[in-house]
Every structure is written in structure tokens, then in C-alpha cells.
Write a structure and sequence with these properties.
The chain is an alpha/beta fold and 673 residues long. The chain folds into 4 domains: 1-114, no CATH class; 153-270, PAS domain (Beta-Lactamase, 2-Layer Sandwich), CATH 3.30.450.20; 365-534, Histidine kinase-like ATPase, C-terminal domain (Heat Shock Protein 90); 539-672, 3-Layer(aba) Sandwich (Rossmann fold), CATH 3.40.50.2300. It has 20 helices and 20 strands. It has a 6-stranded parallel β-sheet with strand order 16-15-17-18-19-20, with helices on both faces. Strands 4-3-7-6-5 form a 5-stranded antiparallel β-sheet, with helices on both faces. The longest helix has 54 residues, at 272-325. The radius of gyration is 51 Å and the shape is elongated.
Length: 673
């Protein structure tokens, strides 16, 4: 009989019978007494529950004995047996358990005997031989357990090594120079793109991935660690087939081995992201420092520009007046022309300083690049050694481009200077400057950031050391430079790139290490007739009979401008004090036809004086002149109702033209530079 049937007969059946009896009793005794029937029913229910609990207790006891027997056997008590109390299912299980225990005990006994090892040793003496038989029985249970624990420890180490970022390794360097990695975790596939099995035979696969510039430094650090047995630390670059340039960091502890080799236990990590973040922080810090420097330079440049332009103004003015009185063919006239030319160049130099410090707006105009490139070549020839050959391939018939002459000068100067620096270390070299006009079709500009059309191509090539591919992609980044400290700021090529892009052009570079570099600058051409019209827009100098109030706190300038304008026929009233000029105008506002005033003056600026004058007489035209001012520009002058704006130093033709235009009612603002 099965346990299920027994449970049913001993527990379920009595319960069922009890329920039937209760129902029958309820119907049968309903007429007699409901209280008696309920009591009998409860009695029968409690009896059934008691019988059920009794059966469950008996079954649980037998099962508990089986469980306890199993636990004792697992602890090695192979002689433990379970009592057999019946022939039911529990009894059958107990008997089967005891049989299994007997068999297991006999098997263990025989296994231990079979694990015994027999060793024989025969000893031969001079006179006779005796045989000695030594039998030794070894119990290797403990050894097996140790081997199992070692295997588990190895699996644990392998799993941990897979979870650790980077590579956990052993590196061994032998006295003869050979080296291997006895152990390397699977991370070797990512860190060096080689398998652990490959480097177990030869470590050259790893060292072959090192950046050429870092190889000697890493080798030196390894040998130093082997010599001193101090911890190895090193940060270095690797060049991998798939990942390219990456940064690695390694730390390892050395150990001297009996055979004279050195064994390191260490780790290698990929620190590329943190290195790039560090470089970005350093770059931003350098930019901040450079920006602060530029701010300081800008403030200094503004002050210098104002004073320098005020010095140049009378030089240029007096020279022009002397030229007007000199015979055209005289040597004296030639010297004056040179003075004027040098003064104009000094004026442009001030403008370049202001442009560099970002305090001067650039006004594009039609320019001939061939003239500017030739001028730059004349300037740099003196600084280029005779060992460098200069080749000029300049097409004098190139069309004009719309650009600021100072910017074109800056492009040519930067590229030519860089080419010269690339050949400084060589015994000789060739610097080639080429200027030509090219027509680019739609197919031609596919690889350019250009539209189809006609361009002037300015090329500078050298036979210097060339540029590495890893560097080539960064040469136009601001503040990036490969030159030693003091040789460059990293601004040159970035400024050139910005200028070229602002004129809707493009710049390209081709370079190979050891073969030199060539830079190509493409700027779009303009209609030559348009350029000529702009350039020729300088009518003859005209004078007049009007009365002009001239205000400037610099007496030499005031004197020079007064003489210049009087020679043009104007009547001039001068004042070195803006407050006195305002008082004079207030006394006779209708006496003056025009006021020309300096911008930066004590007591009252030219801007404030112009507003006060126009409050007295609204239609009076005003021209403001300045050597340099952050507060005044042509745009702001127009907004304030000022009729003309000139930047010192001013040449006579520009001053005369602006005065005549304002007086004639054209109401145009001029930015003369």
C-alpha cells in the first residue's frame, strides 16, 4: 500500500466519514435538539484532525531519520545505519539507504588499497646481492583536495582578471636580453591587440607597438627598475593597427629570480580618455592665459596706437606740404617721397598691431596679391640664410582679390616664415613661392570647401623635415605648435586659416616626413574693372572758402592741420581746449561752417563736444578724428549723427576729400586708414 493511499485511509477517509455522519446526524436529529447535534459534529471534527496530525507526525519522523542519515554519511560516517521499523514505503527507503551505505563503505576501503604504491629497491653488495622489498602506501586524498582548491583559485583569478580594466601581467627579462610575458590576462587583446599566448613566447610584439618617440624612455625605465628593484612606473603611447594612437600607463613590482632574470608583476591601463581630458584642460588653461595676455597687449596696443598715430600725423602732414612745394624732379622731392612712404608704412604697422590685438576692424578692398607677396619677399630675404635657395614663380597678371591688404600680408608672412623655420636645421634647402590664377570646375572643388570659379592660388613649399600625419590634422588648431618654447605661439596657422575662411577661400597642405611641405591658399578673384573703379575713386584735392573750427589738444597737430587747410583756402579757428571751443561756438554759432575735432581730449571728449555743438546748432556738420578709441567707431559715429569719421594719421587727400564731401551735403561717413 502506497503512502498516498495510507494517508487517504488514515486521514482523508475518517474526515469524509465524519462529515457524512455530521450531515446525517443534523438531518436525523433536527427535530430533537440542535445543540446535541452540533456537539457531536464538533467531536467528530476534532477526532478527525487528531488522527490526521498523528499520521503526519509519524511520516515526518521517518523522513527526519532518513535526512539525518544522509547528513552523517556526507560527513564521512559510513558506518551509520537507519532502523527499519516496517514494510511500508518508509521502511523500503530505509533498507535501500542501508544497502547503499554498505556498498559505499566497501568501495572506499578497496579504493584506498588500490591507491597504495609499491616501490622496490635492490641493493647490490660486493660479495652478494640481497633483495629488499619496501612497500609504501600513500593516502593522496589531501593532495587531491589541494589540487582542487588550486584549480578553483586559478578560475577565480582568471575571472577577476577578465573583470579588471586593462592587463594584469607578469613580465620576465632574462640576462641575455630576451623577454617574455609568462602570464597576461585577456585584456592584452584590447591594450596591445595581441593575444596572451603570443606574448608568452616573445615580448617583442608588445614593444613593437610602442610609439617611436617613447620606446627609449620605456626601455630605460625597465632597465632602471631591474637594476634598483624599485617599482616600475611609466606612461607612454602605443600605435595600434585598429585603434591608432593610444595612451597607456603601467605599474609593476620587480623580483630578482635565481637564474639572474627579473620578474615583474604589474598592471597596464588605458589612460587615453583621461590623458585627452588633461590635454584639453591644459589647452583651455593655455587659451585663458593667452587671452589674458592678448587683453593686456590689446590695452597696451591701444595706448601705443593713439600716441604713435599722433606722432605720425604731423610727420605725414608736413611731408605732404613740403612735397607740394618741391620740384618734381629734385633730389629733395625724392627724399620727401621716401619719408612719406616710410610714414605710411609705420601707419600700417600700427594697424597690424591693432588687428593682432583684435581691436581694429578689417575692411576688405580689391588688392593685387602679387604686389603684397613681392613686398613680403623683400622683407624676409634679409633673414633667410644664403644656404636656402628662393624660387619665385609669380604671375604678374593675376586678378585682384577682395581682402584686407594687412591680412594678405599676414598670410604670406606666416607661410613663408614657417617654411624657412622648417629648413633651419638643414645645410641647404629650397623655398618656392608661387602665385597663379586657376579655374576650378564643379569636379575640381569636390575635395575643397569652395564653389566653382576663378581663384588666385598662393603656394609656399619647402624641402624641410615635413609634418607627421598625427600632427597634420591639428596644425590649424589655435595654440597648437610643435616648435620649442620661445619659437612660436601656435597662433600663426590658425590665424591664417581664419583669414582665408573669412574671405570664402580655402587652405590645403600636403606633407610627408623627410620630404617637406607645401601649402596652397585659394582666394576668389573679383572683376578687375570693379577693382579699378574702387582704386581710382580718388578725385583731385579740392579746397574751399568755408570757416572751420579746429579742435585738438596736441598743439603740433593743430598747427600742421591749420597750415594744410589754409593752403586749401579754408579759414581756420583753432583751439587746444574743448571747453574753450564750446564757449567760442556758443558766442557765434553761425560764424562756423564745420567743426573738426579730436576724439580723446581732457575735460570733454570729442564725442561729447560734438553733441553739445549740435544741441546749439543742429545742422552744423562735424568730423571726428582719433588716433585710437574703443568707444568710437564709424558705425557709432553715424548713430550719433556725426557726419565724418577719420583715423589718424590722416593724409591730406583723405582729409580734404572728407571735408569737401561733408560740406557739400553728401552726409557720408568715411573710415580712412
Amino acid at each position: 500500500m502506497t503512502i498516498r493511499k495510507k494517508l487517504f485511509l488514515t486521514a482523508g477517509l475518517p474526515t469524509l466519514l465524519g462529515a457524512i455522519l455530521i450531515v446525517t446526524a443534523i438531518f436525523f436529529m433536527q427535530a430533537v435538539s440542535s445543540l446535541i447535534v452540533a456537539g457531536l459534529g464538533l467531536l467528530l471534527i476534532f477526532s478527525s484532525i487528531f488522527m490526521t496530525l498523528l499520521v503526519v507526525w509519524k511520516i515526518n519522523r521517518d523522513i527526519h531519520r532518513l535526512v539525518q542519515g544522509t547528513r552523517k554519511m556526507s560527513r564521512g560516517q559510513l558506518d551509520h545505519r537507519i532502523p527499519v521499523l516496517g514494510e511500508d514505503e518508509v521502511g523500503i527507503l530505509a533498507r535501500a539507504f542501508n544497502t547503499m551505505a554498505d556498498n559505499l563503505q566497501e568501495f572506499v576501503r578497496k579504493d584506498r588499497e588500490s591507491l597504495a604504491r609499491l616501490s622496490a629497491e635492490m641493493a647490490q653488495k660486493e660479495q652478494f646481492r640481497k633483495a629488499f622489498l619496501h612497500s609504501i602506501i600513500h593516502d593522496i586524498t589531501e593532495r587531491k583536495m589541494v589540487e582542487k582548491k588550486l584549480a578553483e583559485s586559478h578560475d577565480l583569478l582568471d575571472n577577476l582578471a577578465r573583470m579588471v580594466p586593462g592587463v594584469i601581467y607578469q613580465y620576465r627579462l632574462y640576462p641575455d636580453g630576451r623577454s617574455v610575458f609568462p602570464y597576461a590576462s585577456p585584456g592584452m587583446n584590447d591594450i596591445y591587440e595581441v593575444t596572451p599566448e603570443e606574448v608568452q613566447r616573445d615580448a617583442d610584439l608588445v614593444f613593437g607597438r610602442l610609439h617611436p618617440e617613447d620606446y627609449d624612455r620605456v626601455a630605460e625605465a625597465i632597465f632602471e627598475s631591474a637594476r634598483t628593484l624599485e617599482t616600475f612606473f611609466c606612461e607612454f603611447r602605443v600605435i595600434l593597427p585598429r585603434q591608432g594612437l593610444r595612451w597607456r600607463w603601467s605599474q609593476a613590482q620587480p623580483q630578482q629570480m635565481e637564474d639572474g632574470s627579473t620578474l615583474w608583476h604589474g598592471i597596464i591601463l588605458d589612460v587615453t580618455d583621461s590623458k585627452r581630458s588633461q590635454e584639453e584642460r591644459e589647452r583651455l588653461q593655455a587659451q585663458l592665459i593667452q587671452a589674458q595676455k592678448m587683453e593686456a597687449i590689446g590695452a597696451l596696443a591701444g595706448g601705443i596706437a593713439h600716441d604713435f598715430n599722433n606722432i605720425l600725423f604731423p610727420i605725414i602732414g608736413h611731408t605732404e606740404m613740403m612735397i607740394d612745394k618741391s620740384p618734381e624732379e629734385s633730389d629733395f622731392r625724392s627724399s620727401l617721397d621716401e619719408i612719406l612712404s616710410a610714414s605710411i608704412r609705420a601707419k600700417e604697422l600700427v594697424r597690424q598691431v591693432l588687428t593682432f590685438s583684435r581691436q581694429s576692424e578689417k575692411e576688405p578692398k580689391p588688392v593685387k596679391m602679387q604686389l603684397i607677396v613681392s613686398e613680403v619677399l623683400q622683407l624676409v630675404k634679409a633673414s633667410i640664410p644664403s644656404t636656402i635657395t628662393i624660387r619665385q614663380l609669380i604671375d604678374k597678371n593675376c586678378s585682384m582679390v577682395l581682402a584686407d591688404p594687412t591680412n594678405v600680408h599676414q598670410i604670406a608672412m606666416n607661410l613663408i616664415t614657417n617654411a624657412y623655420h622648417a629648413m633651419e636645421a638643414a645645410d641647404n634647402g629650397t623655398l618656392t613661392i608661387q602665385l597663379s590664377q586657376v579655374n576650378l570646375s564643379a569636379d575640381d572643388v569636390r575635395s575643397f570647401d569652395l564653389n566653382p570659379g576663378t581663384y588666385v592660388c598662393f603656394s609656399v613649399s619647402d624641402t624641410g623635415h615635413g609634418i607627421e600625419k598625427t600632427v597634420l590634422s591639428r596644425i590649424f588648431e589655435p595654440y597648437f605648435t610643435t616648435k620649442p618654447e620661445g619659437k612660436g605661439t601656435g597662433l600663426g596657422l590658425s590665424v591664417v586659416h581664419g583669414i582665408v575662411k573669412s574671405y570664402h577661400g580655402d587652405i590645403r597642405v600636403n606633407s610627408e616626413p623627410g620630404k617637406g611641405s607645401v601649402f596652397h591658399v585659394y582666394l576668389p578673384t573679383i572683376d578687375s574693372r570693379q577693382g579699378e573703379a574702387v582704386i581710382m575713386e580718388h578725385p583731385p584735392v579740392q579746397g574751399g572758402r568755408e570757416h572751420i573750427l579746429l579742435v585738438d589738444d596736441e598743439a603740433p597737430i593743430l598747427k600742421m592741420v591749420k597750415q594744410m587747410l589754409e593752403r586749401l583756402g579754408y579759414r581756420i579757428t583753432t583751439s587746444t581746449n574743448s571747453m574753450e571751443a564750446l564757449a567760442a561756438f556758443r558766442l557765434s554759432p553761425d560764424q562756423f561752417d564745420l567743426m573738426v575735432t579730436d576724439m580723446t581730449m581732457p575735460h570733454m571728449t570729442g564725442e561729447k563736444l560734438a553733441m553739445e555743438i549740435k544741441n546749439i546748432r543742429k545742422e552744423i556738420p562735424v568730423i571726428v578724428c582719433t588716433g585710437f578709441s574703443e568707444k568710437m567707431s564709424p558705425e557709432k559715429a553715424r548713430e550719433l549723427g556725426i557726419d565724418g569719421f577719420l583715423t589718424k594719421p590722416i593724409v591730406k587727400s583723405d582729409l580734404a576729400q572728407t571735408i569737401r564731401a561733408v560740406l557739400d551735403g553728401k552726409k557720408k561717413s568715411f573710415l580712412m586708414s
